[in-house]
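STRUCTURE:
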């Protein structure tokens, strides 16, 4: 493994990562006499995917990948099974090994920072995965890693296989289409599963190869489709440093609506040009949170009545909460300041917030999407729940604040 110009050959054990990180702390390198952890490709599956992601183009040789200037960290988590599928062995990917491999990527990213900035992972495998992998994928998202996942090749007309069917915030499920924008079919009985957020090419995809057919070969299936999206994520990240949640919105939102694809559940067709255009030159979505009124003890029939409440502001898939009580005497200005602070401190926010007008009785928070493009028209909502419980014979006044939220998506030039 090369990081920051150094080549590290590390021993096995926790996939070499713990030893690698411990070594770097004291000496830039691992003992070359130790057992090596080279990730060899036993059946060309990973090599084909790597070529789709990052084979260099415009050089007069072979094939061109999605991202011509990218580093790939190969992490081997699968072994070949003693069985055949169309006359070829297939990989068996144990869940615990997949979890460990993904954790290795997280560890390397955390240790080396910008020198090993893992922004995307490609999962061209499925079936039989559960909570352990789901939890690990969430951790990867927390560290800024977006995962492209193949939906599977079983001709399922209703849903994707796991882990694509987890549909996490940092996960993009990928189905396959052919050269005619139709559902990708190949050797019977295999064809693309439905359930994709987007679709990408998945039939007769020419890429790099390690088998005896030569340095290049054809790949079929959603295994070929997912790396198109992983490469797209890496390329978009090079010009727009988006969070996984925003990256999902950019890739899926910019994709094309093709009736012959979404009619069978393949989602939208990947459109990398639109994704880059949106995030670089599009306009962001903007809106306002308008607050009027104030909370005060005199609003109630009995001053001693305990009163409190919860205010929730939702933008996209993020929610922000503000708790108030009757003893505080909060006004609109204080509420606006608190909400803006909560939004801006959220590492996974989809908008930034700024208090643009402020007075005890009326305040406005202006919100703007972090990313750009027409897909930034996120769902929004604002609620105020008053939990005042009046004594016998008493009553509570109406909710002390009137809160509304308006928001409109951006545009593509």
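SEQUENCE:
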């Amino acid at each position: 493994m090369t990081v920051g110009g150094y080549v590290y050959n590390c021993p096995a054990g926790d996939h070499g990562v713990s030893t690698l990180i411990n070594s770097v702390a004291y000496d830039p390198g691992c003992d070359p006499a130790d057992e090596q952890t080279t990730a060899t490709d036993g059946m060309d599956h990973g090599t084909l995917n790597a070529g789709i992601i990052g084979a260099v183009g415009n050089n007069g040789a072979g094939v061109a990948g999605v991202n011509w200037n990218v580093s790939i960290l190969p992490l081997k988590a699968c072994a070949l099974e003693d069985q055949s599928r169309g006359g070829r062995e297939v990989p068996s990917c144990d869940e615990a090994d997949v979890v460990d491999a993904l954790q290795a990527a997280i560890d390397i990213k955390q240790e080396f920072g910008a020198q090993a900035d893992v922004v995307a992972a490609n999962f061209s495998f499925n079936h039989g995965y559960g909570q352990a992998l789901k939890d690990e994928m969430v951790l990867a998202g927390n560290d800024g890693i977006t995962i492209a996942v193949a939906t599977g090749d079983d001709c399922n007309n209703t849903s994707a296989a796991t882990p694509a069917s987890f549909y996490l915030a940092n996960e993009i499920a990928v189905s396959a289409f052919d050269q005619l924008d139709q559902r990708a079919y190949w050797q019977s009985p295999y064809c693309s599963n439905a359930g994709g957020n987007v679709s990408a090419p998945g039939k007769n995809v020419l890429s790099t190869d390690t088998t005896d057919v030569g340095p290049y070969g054809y790949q079929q299936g959603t295994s070929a489709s997912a790396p198109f999206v992983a490469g797209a994520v890496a390329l978009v990240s090079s010009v727009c440093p988006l969070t996984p949640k925003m990256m999902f919105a950019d890739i899926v939102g910019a994709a094309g609506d093709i009736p012959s694809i979404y009619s069978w559940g393949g989602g939208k067709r990947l459109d990398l040009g639109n994704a880059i255009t949106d995030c670089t030159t599009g306009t962001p979505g903007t809106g306002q949170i308008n607050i009027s009124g104030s909370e005060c003890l005199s609003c109630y029939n009995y001053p001693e009545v305990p009163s409190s409440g919860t205010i929730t502001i939702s933008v996209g898939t993020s929610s922000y909460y503000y708790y108030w009580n009757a003893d505080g005497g909060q006004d609109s200005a204080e509420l606006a300041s608190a909400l803006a602070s909560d939004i801006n401190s959220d590492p996974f926010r989809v908008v930034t917030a700024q208090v643009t007008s402020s007075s005890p009785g009326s305040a406005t928070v202006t919100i703007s999407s972090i990313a750009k493009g027409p897909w930034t028209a996120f769902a929004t909502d604002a609620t105020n729940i008053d939990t005042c419980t009046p004594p016998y014979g008493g009553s509570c006044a109406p909710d002390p604040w009137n809160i509304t939220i308006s928001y409109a998506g951006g545009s593509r030039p």
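REMARK: The first strand starts at residue 2 and ends at 3.
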